[in-house]
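Render this sequence as a predicted structure.
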Amino acid sequence: MKERAGRLRSPTIIDVAAQAGVSPMTVSRVINDRPGVDPQTRAGVQDAIRALGYTPNLAARSLVTAAELKIGVIYSNPSAAFMSDFLTGVFEEASTRGARLILLKGENGRPPDQAALEDLVASGISGLICAPPLSESAAVLDVLRKARVPVAAVGAHGIGTLGIEDAICVRIDDRLAAYEMTRRLIDLGHRRLGFVVGNPDQVASLQRLDGFYAAVRETGGVRSTIAQGDFSFASGLAAGDQLLQANPAPTAIFASNDDMAAAVVSVAHRRHLDVPGELTVVGFDDTTAAVMLWPPLTTVHQPVRRLAAEALGLLVSEIGMPSRRSGKRADHVLPHAIVERQSTASLPLETPPAE
């Protein structure tokens, strides 16, 4: 009786794998039309599917895909604090999804070499997640475009313009966040503002600069001074020196990330300036760098862990339900917030000259 019931049940992906002499993972790749299967093996799996009359269903495909998830993580960011939060978010989400992660790291914001990227893709990954700045790197995206695997990019703006129109993009509204922080400085009475720009190759840097300028332009009598950074602490030191050498120097400096803001605070201390009594300093990201110095930074809270976890979760859903692909993806924009700490102060009233 049990034998008869077994013969009457619908064939499974395990049955197809046994018939074709391959692993269930290989069968799943063929079913989902993913790369990494040679033509002869693919044809054998398709023959087995037809011979057994196997019909995949979405639920089974999702379960099988979840069981074999292998996600590539490409990252290279000069901010150790940002990367710590990013990787924590990815690791935590991967553990709940049963996904295996394969990490590939570049150095100092530069992408890994092309051979390493191609080897990662050829290893049979189910999908890829990229951290900024690599989420907008033409060299990285060129390899991913050719690989035709699902991609999630954290912090990317308009990734479709680089040729991966169905990529998943997860970010905050960088322009609005920078605008709100700049308005906060202006509302505190500051009229001489310095701004440290981030990596010029990242759209987020330009969006933050645009938000800063938008707030400056709508307020009369505000003087702004700009210094270029690249999101690293070292670049923040150079930018801080440049801004504080100006005559007159800014009374408030807004750095495009916390690492550079912490560097500006260090420069101010070296110049015997009291923060925030003589200089207000604010940052962006709300990483551990914001609270590991004195005074702790007022900053824009960018939920980096949540961004990374959301990107991985969306990527897993994309892999599990490939039929849902629409060919073009809208950005997934998460909320930000201004976190007030001790690095900001109202501008003291000017003392009238003695008669």
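Summary. Residues 49 and 55 are 8 Å apart (CA to CA). The mean pLDDT is 84.
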